[in-house]
Amino acid sequence: MLVLATFFPVPGSQRDAVTLDAFQDVKNPLTLEFFKASIDLADLIGMYIALSRIPGRGHSKCLTAGIGWGTAELILSRFLTIWVGAKGIEFNWRYIQMSFDANISMVQHIMTAALVWLWSRHDVKPSFYPVVAILAIIGVYKGLLIDIFTLASHIDPWTSLVIKLLITAFLGALTIRVYSTVA
């Protein structure tokens, strides 16, 4: 979050005269979004460190790290918007969509924690390491790919949410399949 706030300020916000915006000369918005999504690779390193510090069995580590990471992401990015907006006088479906998206994101974080845990294991078959790496990379760039597809095909937000749900469920099923071979 700190790296995102430092290098990718919100468009239209006032910026100081001295800024660390290294990507201000990037003209293509897709390249900028790719860089933003690539910062999530650092989250995998943070998840690895968190999983190495949590005592216990594999499934409890994955659930603890995944739910904790998902809850922190929810509080820092969506909680205030949902809390203030949903308590308003006028009903809006956007807050229902945001809450569904938060639940899908929670499953994504648990899946990511399981993949990082699988990567750190030494008893995983060597043929599964590429599968784990590919699933983790797809998980990192899934949001960007869905956004590009949604914008290119002019899909409404509900359909985009269903697509996100189906892709997350598919990746989760693959992760459970690989996880079941070890656990």
Automatic annotation (TrEMBL):
Major location (coarse): membrane
UniProt keyword Protein transport present: no
Record's bilayer topology term: Multi-pass membrane protein
Keywords: Cell membrane, Endoplasmic reticulum, Membrane, Transmembrane, Transmembrane helix
Keyword Transport: no
InterPro entries: TMEM147 (IPR019164)
Protein location: Cell membrane; Endoplasmic reticulum membrane
Residue ranges crossing the lipid bilayer per the database entry: 98-119, 131-152, 158-179
Pfam families the record matches: DUF2053 (PF09767)
Similarity comment: family membership: Belongs to the TMEM147 family.
Protein name: BOS complex subunit TMEM147
